[in-house]
């Protein structure tokens, strides 16, 4: 395998000149640049990313800890992160924790061993990473993305889930519904808790009573929405409208309603949350609260790069504003 010294020897220049041509960090005459490029092509030379990272003390690599599931929301956020990393010249190493604390610590150590320049964390684990793992490495800039309830001391980017829950519930109330149920996400997760609190606030402001059986706490998954909707349909007085804490559970609720020979929105109206790519293709298209997933990924990468360059700057909490996307799953009552 050819080295930079081989390129320099063939081109008749110093290794520093070869480095300047490759990195474009200093002026080199056109004739010399052409000789170096010809030598690189002739020798089929590939610059060593490891050597460059050791010299620059930066790998241009970002690590991401993520809890994945059947919920498409995660994949859509990762898509935004990957696109932003590519546009900014960074590589992304993705590690799935699968909701397992031991696996999270193992993945974290793997990323730190690879000398990532910064970490994006979007995990559902309530307990934070092992302090023992973190203590073995210098402080790494960190940005928490929406789903990280544990303290990190880094920047946080999140959706205003309380406002989103309020908007969704008020939309059902304004449509004329009074019998409104909530299929909420797991309450140990801050977004799920805030969306549920937004629902409760809107119902309280409208002076609407909520039967205990109209509130079901589920898991943000398709099956959770399906099972929860079946419980609501089995009630003597089932609700006429549903606020689902995310679109995945709303999709599951659709299936439960369909399986009972009922229709959305003729028999039951539903509003979801997240505006996943599947939502407009449901039958009927799902009315939902849009969470700006691409913007979440972009802001997270931008903030992490800022933190790398400004390690002493104060930590920030950046809040994204959710918006209603009106489709056809809610009828006027």
TrEMBL record:
Q: Record's SUPFAM superfamilies?
A: lambda repressor-like DNA-binding domains, Periplasmic binding protein-like I
State the coiled-coil residue ranges. Answer: none
Keyword annotations of the record = DNA-binding, Repressor, Transcription, Transcription regulation
Query: Carries keyword Nucleotide-binding?
Result: no
- Domain HTH lacI-type, first and last residues per copy: 2-56
Matching entries from InterPro entries are given as: HTH_LacI, LacI/GalR-like_sensor, Lambda_DNA-bd_dom_sf, Peripla_BP_I, PurR_sensor_dom
Return the Gene3D superfamilies for the record: 3.40.50.2300, lambda repressor-like DNA-binding domains
Q: Name one GO molecular function term.
A: transcription cis-regulatory region binding
Annotated NCBIfam families: PRK10423.1 (NF007743)
Q: What is this protein called?
A: Ribose operon repressor
